[in-house]
Amino acid sequence: MLALQSHVDSGISISRFRIPLPELRSNDRQNRSWDEESNAMKREIMMGYATYTGTKRNLAALAAAQWRILLTPESWRPSTVKYLRHHGFRYAIDNGAWSAYQKKEEWDQELFEKLLKKMGRDADWVALPDVVCGGISSLRRSIAWVPFVLGRTTRALIPVQDGMVDEDVQALLGPRIGIFVGGSTEWKLRSIPRWAALGIKRRCWVHVARVNTKKRINLCSSVFVDSFDGTSASRFASSLPRLEMARRQLVLIGGE
To answer: CB under 8 Å to 163, separation ≥6 — which residues?
Structure first.
């Protein structure tokens, strides 16, 4: 386990770094709260992010359903900025490591930095660079990038990977550093409830990657995950209504 220092009110101390952090926008806070009347945890509609697509029909469907866009270094273009702003899309930024891993290519650091510098300021969050299925080596890479990323955006998410446990990251977590549940598919599905519980405990954002089925959306919603992403809604407009129905199910648990 890495020795980490916890965050403080005006910044985050990580090793020798102290990073001044901007205030979060009011609609960027966690979409879950405690209902005193029913003595239960309740949540608003979980946020869905779809990978950016150039297909206008699919983008129009996503806009109508109030989904947000997940930008990746390889999908982003300068024209993307104008389009997203014109249509009022909110967005988040992925680091592109998963795509490089699938293609068996080296991760393109330069493309990520270019995207972050151009679009980071208004992003809901940015996934810190990681090593897919890399465990503690992935965490070391993510931590090394915290000063650079949080200097250019409001919230950064630590990708948790196969082999990582709560104690590896919990001291870092807070309003401006959250959890991005990645890793192998089997490990991710098995560990979602554990990371969601940690997010509630630490009051941090929890996002789950690669969620493309109603069953997986229901799993995320049932444990109060804040957001998820997937490619299905951006590739196939016909799949959006089914996924949207699952996303909009409000959850209320714990009451009598």
So the answer is: 135, 136
Residue 95 contacts residue 128 (beta carbons within 8 Å): yes
pLDDT at 236: 60
Per the prediction, the chain carries an average pLDDT of: 81
Contact status, residue 218 vs residue 246, Cβ threshold 8 Å: yes
Domains, the chain, in order of start with CATH, read 32-253 (3.20.20.60)
Q: Which pair of tokens denotes residue 87?
A: 């249509």
User: Residue 43 carries which DSSP code?
Assistant: E
pTM of this structure? 0.81
Q: Tell me which DSSP letter residue 25 carries.
A: P
Helix (H) or strand (E) holding 34: strand 32-35
The conformation of residue 76, written as its DSSP 8-state character, comes to: -
DSSP string, 108-140: -HHHHHHHHHHHGGG-S-EEPP--TT-HHHHHH
User: Cα separation of 209 and 189, whole Å?
Assistant: 10
What is the Cα Rg of the chain in Å?
17
Q: In which order are the strands placed within the sheet that holds 7-8?
A: 7-8, 11-14, 17-20
Contact 138, 130 (CB under 8 A): yes
In this structure, are residues 161 and 132 in contact, taking their beta carbons and an 8 Å threshold?
A: yes
Q: Which amino acid is at 119?
A: M
